[in-house]
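Example for tutorial group B:
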């Protein structure tokens, strides 16, 4: 039986403890992707983050940026306010013991 190397996203998923899911608009991130990537390389270095598809949740496409520390994720969000967090708890399909019928848009 041939043993294959696991996909990089699985390796990164196990290695990086912090994930930031960001919204990817229907027409893509465009130039914002370059701005984000350039900042990550400049401020953190290539081995300190990973970037993969975050899949879709509800009707929202996402990108997943993996970090070694939550401060790096917070710094990115502060530096580039155009980034929108993909908050899955706002999806109509989300439920939990606290919100058995989902979270309402008014914050309740």
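The residue assignment follows.
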């Amino acid at each position: 039986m041939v043993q294959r190397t696991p996909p990089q996203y699985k390796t990164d998923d196990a290695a990086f403890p912090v994930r930031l899911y960001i919204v990817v608009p229907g027409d893509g991130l465009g130039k914002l992707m370059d701005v984000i990537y350039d900042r990550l390389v400049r401020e953190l270095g290539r081995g300190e983050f990973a970037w993969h598809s975050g899949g879709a949740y509800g009707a929202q496409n996402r990108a997943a940026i993996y970090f070694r520390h939550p401060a790096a994720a917070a710094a990115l969000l502060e530096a580039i306010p155009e980034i929108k967090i993909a908050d899955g708890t706002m999806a109509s399909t989300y439920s939990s013991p606290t919100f058995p019928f989902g979270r309402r848009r008014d914050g309740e």
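Residues 31-43 form the longest helix (13 residues). Compare this with the pattern of hydrophobic and polar residues in the output above.
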